[in-house]
Write a structure and sequence with these properties.
alpha/beta
């Protein structure tokens, strides 16, 4: 039985990947630092198949032993304690150390790293800069590396719609950051998890970048109007200058009630769409589902 280590396995994306891989019989270890619902994670597989493992740092000898004996490692960890330093340092330092440990595992079959669309061109984001540096480090150190660059991921319980829908339901006025003309290409979570399953089950080798996005390119303004239509409610979109939002968010981030972070606000500054730099769903024989229909199903249920 192949063993897989999944960092970030307790999150929204991670749980969907866990369900798929568990059905294929893999033994899966889910390292975590912050508290998670261990019982629910274990129930995503059969008894004893999925093992949550709490660790403090990558210096944990038990964790290092696990990493030295795993067949596959997937890293979709996205939460980092910014109190420990700038994103550009803490994200890259964590990943650099993880990659160094994995490099010593001579039997490692695959390393899968979750990134994001456009991280190589987003110079204003510390997070994107650190993630792009991690991509390059992984390609340099580990032969069989697959980089996953998804668009904004949607599906039941996703962060994007989870934050957006309550605003549409409660307020007649809905803030629209900037002029609403920035484009994005959302992708359905089931398609993303299927892509990871295929990369692993097909034992894909070499160094690959998969840009995973849905079939539709939308502006935020068009998307917001579509959500209003699905809710069958009239909503007035109120453009809010991004410079003003940056000031407001910088203050809100110091409280527990900030609706989004400064890094997330950067999504509204540039298009978040496929650049066609390497591979896509097509290379995995996957036909991505219509994201607008997915949104309609979520909103109406």
């Amino acid at each position: 039985m192949k063993s897989i280590v999944i960092f970030g396995g307790s999150g929204f994306v991670g749980k969907h990947i866990l369900r798929r891989l568990a059905k294929n019989g893999y033994k899966i270890i889910v390292p975590y630092q912050k508290s998670i619902q261990e019982a629910k994670i274990r129930l995503l597989g059969v008894t004893g198949q999925i093992i949550p493992f709490r660790y403090t740092t990558l210096n944990d000898k038990r964790l290092q032993s696990i990493l030295m004996n795993t067949d596959i490692c997937i890293n979709l960890k996205t939460t980092y304690d910014q109190k420990k330093g700038p994103f550009n340092e803490i994200i890259f330092n964590f990943n650099k150390k993880l990659i160094k440990i994995l490099k010593s595992n001579k039997d490692l079959k695959q390393f899968v790293f979750f990134s994001g669309l456009g991280v190589d061109t987003d110079k204003n984001s510390q997070r994107s800069t650190a993630i792009h540096k991690t991509e390059k480090e992984a390609f340099k150190m580990i032969d069989n590396t697959s980089i996953i660059r998804p668009g904004i991921i949607i599906g039941g319980g996703d962060v994007f719609l989870k934050r957006l829908l309550p605003i549409f339901k409660m307020s007649f006025f809905v803030p629209l950051f900037g002029d609403g003309k920035i484009k994005f290409q959302p992708v359905f979570i089931d398609d993303v998890s299927l892509a990871v399953e295929k990369i692993i089950s097909n034992q894909i080798t070499g160094k690959n970048i998969y840009e995973l996005a849905g079939p539709r390119i939308l502006t935020y303004k068009d998307f917001y109007n579509y959500v209003s239509k699905c809710l069958n409610r009239t909503r007035v979109l109120v453009p809010v200058p991004l410079n003003l939002m940056k000031i407001l968010i910088s203050f809100a981030e110091k409280t527990p009630f900030s609706p989004l972070t400064s890094e997330q606000l950067l999504l509204f500054e540039k298009d978040n769409i496929i650049q066609n730099i390497d591979k896509s769903f097509k290379n995995l024989d996957i036909n991505p589902q219509d994201t607008l229909q997915i949104v309609k199903n979520i909103v109406e249920n």
